[in-house]
Amino acid sequence: MRRLPLALALSALLPFVALAQAEPAAKGTKYRSAKEIIDAAPDSAWRDLDPANTLYMELPAGRVVIELAPGFAPEHVANIKTMAKGGFWDGTSIYRAQDNFVVQFGDVDADDAAKAKKHPAGTKEKLPAEFTRKGPARFDRLKDKDGWAPQVGFTDGFAVGHDPAKKETWIAHCYGALGAGRNNAPDSSIGAELYVVIGQAPRALDKQLTMVGRVVQGMSLLSATPRGPEPMGFYEDPAQRAPITAIRLASDVPAAERTNLQILRTDSQAFIDATEARRNRKDDFYTIPAGHIDLCNVPLPVRTKK
Amino acid sequence: MRRLPLALALSALLPFVALAQAEPAAKGTKYRSAKEIIDAAPDSAWRDLDPANTLYMELPAGRVVIELAPGFAPEHVANIKTMAKGGFWDGTSIYRAQDNFVVQFGDVDADDAAKAKKHPAGTKEKLPAEFTRKGPARFDRLKDKDGWAPQVGFTDGFAVGHDPAKKETWIAHCYGALGAGRNNAPDSSIGAELYVVIGQAPRALDKQLTMVGRVVQGMSLLSATPRGPEPMGFYEDPAQRAPITAIRLASDVPAAERTNLQILRTDSQAFIDATEARRNRKDDFYTIPAGHIDLCNVPLPVRTKK
């Protein structure tokens, strides 16, 4: 008697079917769940994922769909596109899976000059650090307080921190965020070695690395990767590494083979209302409204394009 | 060149080797990393895990060690001990793994009166909800702000929310927290069906369920469970469910077969200092101190008893 009821009761908390934001929902109207709000959202509330800024990471078990963030890391994203076009990641691996932290992938021999995989023609071997985005950008603020940033919200559909005094915005290290691994030097990343957050948001890393995108579909293909047995989740045994068949830019994949997705706009009324519905849930299961939502608990709804 | 340096640089963020808390570290002294502080902690800073309040969940791949929380849920914990002694979970399964949320385990047929596994003699079939702990309890407060609770910190070594006005304390839904699944009725859990948080802390669930403990070792045996293909992460195909060999109370296991662990006390100076070292990191990798740590980003260090 406790299996399905619990499941149904928690169902409105599904990570990939819900949301949150700044303006309060209309008062006095009947409570609708986030799911009801999203299901009723007009087509205009959805945006197409742009194939020119979408990566397909092909794993034996399926496809991971990644939205790139050229507005935050133009140089890194351009380099990643060059490398994807050149097939750099084809045949590489997920060579690190550290519990409650990150999976990391790319060329496991990148540190060994003798064995390192050659970068495709046109790859830039040196890039500036792109930790924060300066200047004006649309920012849909969450009203909720946050310990890591003066303000939080969404820019270009990414969960971000924002500092109005410094006029800086940065992609937060939420679950599914994609970052560029680096050495100690801030400008030591070029986008060849990448990591995805698979645990509690390690936001102490915010503004310390160049963030290049986020996973929009297929997270469970990464998050359930067996953790590596070596320190920090590395696999010394090559057989344990998870192979990457290919990483391609969606626009380089034939139209018939694409995964056509839409993302709910973070400036849509549906997103704002659904977020409020999550902040203050009213249903048969939840007895106390939280009155709050954390930036990294706000799901960004995805649907297959009709 | 980007593999090990990144790994080493991020190493101080290892989830199971670090910490955080209320009082500031001594000023004017040389910066020490959390790891250095913990490694230098005196034996008196560590407490033994009590075998009478420790569960061993035996999976084919290894042992998950769980610390029970009798101070928060005395009735549920007593029932869980009765069920463990009676072998209730032996041969049951992890029947749900929902990405970025929870794994859930117990008797998959619990809802089917005809097939449900009989509870061991002495199991109470009705318990009160134990969502919050009333009255005085030692509370080691984190100074960091939190959106979900008036105050946060540690009680009995568990990450908790605290409401000084209502004099209530509750275990927060951080990564690794163990809760009792329930139906819509608040008093519908008895501890037979349990869940463990495996993603971004779903703290909207705080104070809505009875929390009975947390995983102190072996989380990756749960978090890397392949996600269930059905809605909410269920597996309809029994072959996909992860089998549970047994769940035993450590005190019922022969001493030679126990996993003897110690936990760093959350009221120790080492814990307080290590937390401060994480809040404001100073090393060759981190260029900006965060000045903050989230309750659910504070690791609770565990070591093998010498």
TrEMBL record, chains A, B:
Residues 1-20 form the signal peptide. The keyword Isomerase applies. Keywords: Isomerase, Rotamase, Signal. SUPFAM superfamilies: Cyclophilin-like. The keyword Disulfide bond does not apply. Its EC number is 5.2.1.8. Residues 60-249 form the PPIase cyclophilin-type domain. It holds the Pfam family Pro_isomerase. This is peptidylprolyl isomerase. One of its GO terms (molecular function) is peptidyl-prolyl cis-trans isomerase activity. PROSITE patterns: CSA_PPIASE_2 (PS50072). The lineage of its organism: Bacteria, Pseudomonadati, Pseudomonadota, Gammaproteobacteria, Lysobacterales.
